[in-house]
Amino acid sequence: MNRRASSSPYLFFLQVIAIASLLLGSSLFASSLAWAADKDKSRWDKKYATEKYVFGREAIPFVQNHVDLLPKGHALDIAMGEGRNGVFLATKGFQVTGVDISSEGLKKAEALAAEHSATITTMVVDLEAYAIPPNTYDVIICTYYLQRDLFPKIAAALKPGGMALIETYTTDHSQYRPGFNKAWLLKPNQLLTMLPGLRVLRYQEVDTGQAAFASILAQKPH
């Protein structure tokens, strides 16, 4: 008797069990990700559900000081929040798309844009699952949101000659907020290594006495 043929029902049974386990595991994993995203959305929606602009209405100085270097065109504001940086770019003639998990934050971004007679496009997305289309944007900004696997995607999403502007907290920030999650802090000079293939135009590490952060402006080669 052919051994392979005689054992096939058993192998088939094992394969069915393995596939079912994988599917069940994938389903549970997907469910846990969805739960985490919903929890994150609820947390930020609650934070932004106030008339006050939690992080202010003015763009951060690093954006304001370098806006004239940015190539005009389509700009993506990742983790846009209440829109202070993206709206500023829109007032300077950029075509701005802002993405964030919080619909409440984006509503405030749209209101801020309207106050400045500017137009922005917003999308509610889970950034953990968001696919940035490659070779699409002239400018990508991301401030005070650290998701490490986004950095290579940011580099890939820039058009040739496009620029990325990033600013976020460093490990020195722990002295001002001891409970801050260290996974969301960058080590000294680490930001210099996180945008593969881009040329660094500007870089700084700042300690204001109340916060510590790093900022970078980098360009994709033509």
Outline of this structure?
The protein is an alpha/beta fold. The protein has 5 helices and 7 strands; from the N terminus they run H-H-E-H-E-H-E-E-H-E-E-E. The protein has helices at residues 3-48, 61-66, 84-91, 103-115, 150-157; strands at residues 74-78, 95-100, 120-124, 137-143, 158-169, 199-207, 212-219.
The SSE string, one letter per element, is HHEHEHEEHEEE
Main β sheet profile? 7 strands, mixed
CATH topology of the largest domain: Rossmann fold
Beta-strand segment tally: 7
Number of domains: 2
Principal-axes shape call: globular
Class based on secondary structure composition and strand pairing = alpha/beta
Poorly predicted regions: 1-14, 28-33
Distance between the termini: 66 Å
CATH architecture verdict of the largest domain: 3-Layer(aba) Sandwich
Tell me the strand order in the biggest sheet.
Answer: 3-2-1-4-5-7-6
CATH class of the largest domain: Alpha Beta
Q: Could you give me the name of the CATH homologous superfamily of the largest domain? A: Vaccinia Virus protein VP39
The overall average pLDDT, rounded, is 88
Helix count equals 5
Work out the strand percent.
15-25%
Q: What share of the residues lie within helices?
A: 25-40%
